[in-house]
Design a protein that fits this description.
The protein has helices at residues 3-15, 18-25, 29-43, 59-86, 105-116, 129-138, 217-229, 243-251, 296-304; strands at residues 48-51, 54-57, 91-97, 120-126, 143-146, 149-151, 163-165, 173-180, 182-187, 197-198, 207-211, 235-240, 257-260, 271-276, 283-289. It is α/β, with parallel strands linked by helices and 305 residues long. A 5-stranded mixed β-sheet has the order 4-3-5-15-8, with helices on both faces. A 4-stranded mixed β-sheet has the order 10-14-9-13. Strands 1-2 form a two-stranded antiparallel ribbon.
Length: 305
């Protein structure tokens, strides 16, 4: 049984006249009759009959007509779905992101992508840069929003900015989408909140709430390196694995902190953010992917980026 036979059968059933049906189908009458005969042979039932010189549908034909229409509808849907998948309008995008991307870049990108491709399934999760890079290399995710460069302050007291590439495996592609500063986080009422900008060394005697190193060793070590370049080693009193917890602990008065911007929204009566006047290099936020990944959904996402 072939789809063209089903289409021919449905048209004949609608017209109840082989001549008119052949005209609609752009076929000759003999060709259409052979298709119907072949379909009846395949099914092992008679679909049409002659009753008192009238062309009528059998009971088997009536039952088969409803099913044939459903099969044709589903086949058309399958064709449209395949075509839309090829265009990147259907499918799944497996995206991972660093936590610091959640306050500005990630909502902006996902909002625009959702508006453009509302039926694409988004598989989202917060991962470290290292984990994302490994998964991109292995093909377990489609795209990462990560920080493939870590700013480095040179040894000695001076902090002229520079960056060094870390972690991204050979063969991965990336594009910088943002450059974010390091900012100071202070509890409201702290003596330094009267200042609009701070120097790092002004935090030298403060207790710190810091990123837990296992949750992000590069971020942890880089910020500690900035502090040491400014002449002190931060006195870490509390650690947390996520930005929201760090901000909450600062608000509780457990210490100050340093975070990569943009910072999460917070109550200004509890937490205050301040720019740093030190000449620190920015943290680059990049979209990364494998050029070997031929996913049409990924291609649409990268076009949007």
């Amino acid at each position: 049984m072939e789809l063209r036979q089903l289409r021919s059968f449905v048209v004949v059933a609608e017209e109840m006249n082989v001549g008119r049906a052949a005209t609609r189908l752009h076929l000759t009458q003999p060709s259409l009759s052979r298709q119907i005969a072949a379909l009846e042979h395949d099914l092992g039932v008679e679909l049409f009959a002659r009753v008192k010189r009238r062309f009528v549908m059998t009971a088997a034909g009536e039952t088969f007509l409803a099913e044939a229409r459903e099969l044709l509808r589903r086949s058309e849907e399958a064709v449209r779905a395949a075509q839309r998948t090829q265009r990147g309008e259907l499918g799944t995008l497996r995206l991972r992101f660093v936590q610091s991307a959640t306050f500005e870049v990630l909502p902006r990108l996902l909002g625009a992508f959702r508006r453009a491709y509302p039926e694409v399934v988004l598989d989202l999760e917060s991962w470290t840069t290292l984990r994302q890079a490994e998964a991109l290399r292995d093909g377990r995710i489609d795209v990462g929003l990560l920080r493939p460069t870590a700013p480095v302050a040179p040894s000695g007291g001076k902090q002229a900015g520079s960056t060094t590439v870390v972690r991204l495996a050979p063969g991965l592609s990336s594009r910088v989408v943002a450059e974010d500063p390091l900012v100071a986080v202070l509890p409201a009422g702290h003596r330094l909140t009267r200042r609009k900008r701070l120097r790092l060394d002004e935090l030298a005697d403060e207790p710190f709430v810091f990123y837990a190193r296992p949750s992000g060793p590069t971020v942890h070590d880089t910020i500690v390196g900035f502090c040491r370049a400014a002449g002190f080693t931060p006195r870490i009193e509390q650690e947390a694995a996520d930005v929201q917890t760090i901000v909450s602990l600062v608000a509780a008065g457990l210490g100050v902190s340093l975070l990569i911007g943009p910072t999460p929204p917070s109550n200004p009566d509890a937490v205050v953010y301040r720019e740093l006047s030190d000449d620190l290099p920015p943290w680059q936020l990049s979209v990364a992917w494998s050029p070997d990944n031929r996913s049409p959904v990924l291609a649409r996402f990268l076009e949007l980026v």
